[in-house]
Design goal:
Length: 321
């Protein structure tokens, strides 16, 4: 089967393209946001094919996987007038929690009868106003990086993109107080200048942007994973850290309360509780390793790749029937 999807979310797509199909990813000469082509820092199989908009017009497409509202019109134009949901089966994958006037935020594809709206967490489906559109949840799946945890560095790892711009959404304002409990290594895009922005000494808040494989190695060296996010969807970096065998210290918000079971770390809406947990892990590396092992077991059980791909195969069969 040929599945058309755009390179929007590298970590999610890395799991999705491990399935049994051919995955058509648009590429344009300038590799703009609508034509990035294959990932360069994620490992994707040969079943992922780059296709130009011109090639798509004469290519058999069996399913369109939309991830941004404007892709509906883009797909129809690039597919030579074939309409997703009418002429070609389609699903819309929503990666994010709603924004704006929560919980009244209406989804852009609410009240549609021509496609299925897929959410990545039950929390997201609950909080979006989906109208009458058929909805489904396929929880995340992770390509297992293996149990790499050593925790040799007595520091907390944080993964977030654009922490300065996103501010309170990602809990950036909480980092100064949490850095007093554990020095922070913040990984992600556009993290440079974060320490200065927060008024922190450079050694209490270091930053780096690493390719995925290097990121996994770096995370596993840190004593704990810190997830201070107030309001986003369930971060794949959190699930990857759990797969690595890291104990997690997280705000009890959005889907994190479902993803992190007792014994795998600390969940709380009180930053001071998170700070205490971080101090404990720094002081008790054996306890950190034990909780990390439980985190890995829980992540493999709920967010394993096999379950993820099986769930998608069932949904694809339903959509195309």
């Amino acid at each position: 089967m040929n599945i058309l999807l755009w390179h929007v979310h590298g970590s999610w797509t890395t799991a999705f393209v491990q399935g049994p199909h051919t995955y058509l990813v648009p590429v344009t000469p300038r590799r703009d946001p609508d034509g990035l082509g294959r990932a360069r820092t994620f490992s994707w199989p040969d079943a992922v094919r780059e296709v130009t908009p011109q090639e798509l017009g004469r290519t058999q497409v069996d399913l369109v996987l939309l991830q941004r509202p404007h892709e509906m019109d883009l797909a129809e134009r690039w597919l030579g007038g074939r309409r997703p949901g009418r002429d070609v089966p389609a699903v819309y994958l929503e990666h994010n929690a709603p924004d704006g006037s929560v919980p009244d935020t209406r989804h852009p594809f609410a009240d549609r009868d021509d496609l299925t709206l897929v959410h990545v967490t039950h929390f997201n489906r609950l909080f979006w106003d989906n109208g009458s559109t058929r909805t489904h949840v396929v929880e995340h799946g992770i390509v297992d990086p293996g149990h790499q945890y050593t925790g040799n560095l007595a520091r907390a790892a944080v993964v977030v993109n654009e922490p300065v711009r996103r501010g309170r959404y990602t809990g950036t304002d909480l980092l100064p107080a949490l850095s007093e409990a554990a020095p922070l290594d913040v990984f992600g895009m556009r993290t440079e200048g974060l320490a200065a922005h927060l008024g922190l000494p450079a050694d209490r808040c270091r930053t780096a942007d690493l390719p995925q494989q290097e990121l996994h190695t770096a995370l596993a060296e840190r004593r704990l994973y810190l997830h201070p996010v107030r309001w986003t969807s369930l971060g794949l970096s959190l699930l990857e850290a759990m797969h690595l065998g890291m104990p997690v210290v997280a705000l009890a918000t959005t889907e994190a309360v479902e993803a992190i079971p007792p014994g795998a770390g600390t969940l709380s809406t009180r930053p001071e509780v998170l700070a205490r947990a971080a101090r404990r892990y720094l002081a008790e590396p054996e306890a950190a390793a034990e909780d990390g092992a439980r985190a890995r077991h829980a992540a493999l059980e709920r967010y394993g790749l096999k379950r993820f791909l099986n769930d998608w195969e069932r949904l694809i069969t339903e959509v195309r029937s």
